[in-house]
Amino acid sequence: MYDAEFEQLAVQLAERSKISAITISQQYGSGGNKLAAKLAFKLRWRLADYEIIAQVARQLGITEEEAALYDEHTCSFVDRFLLSMMFSTAEAMQAWASQLIMPVSPQMQKRLYHESLHQIIDTFVCTGNTVIVGRGAQVLLANQPDLLHIRVVAPFAQRVSTVMQSERLDEAHARVCIQQRDRNQARYLQSQYHRNVNDPLLYDLVVNSGFLDLEGQIDLICLALEHKAHWAVV
Prior knowledge:
Mean pLDDT: 79
Largest sheet: 5 strands, parallel
Distance between the termini: 27 Å
Low-confidence stretches: 74-93, 96-103
Strand content: 5-15%
């Protein structure tokens, strides 16, 4: 699809205002972040990726590093323990003093984080014309007719090669890293929302980046976007 066609599509979608956001869920190493960035650029939409964590951190009065420990890809028992220790510092407690009387428990930390996450993602959707990456948005925003949900996958060998290059790891470490990230992502959606990240019914379209190049993936998503925009009208 040529750039002129993308510009025309972006104008048409803006005029219809029926699809408010696209969510991009991805397997680690599948290139979903790169796809989301280029898709947002082509459509002239806002990209909401790491900005989501930054906004959560500002709202809660903690650092982005602390907020990131509850991200869908990294949350684990060790992470939650470390986060609990961080929230217990004098600085963190002072930030929460206006809302809480007693030390923040891990359960309360988790609830406050997800309340903030939900609010910020909802704000992006209300603003419209946004590509939202990860953070369980495909579940948080499920069954909304004015959204398009995309899952990006790739063959394991290709993901290993991608992670080796992007993270400068050898093959053995890249494999372990991918397997750990896959487990963390699956655990996050299961424990937080009782959903399986690989459930195809969570997505309008599953894109295999091992089969299609970046332009082909964007073409396919834009086609799905046009069809769902028409379906949303009906």
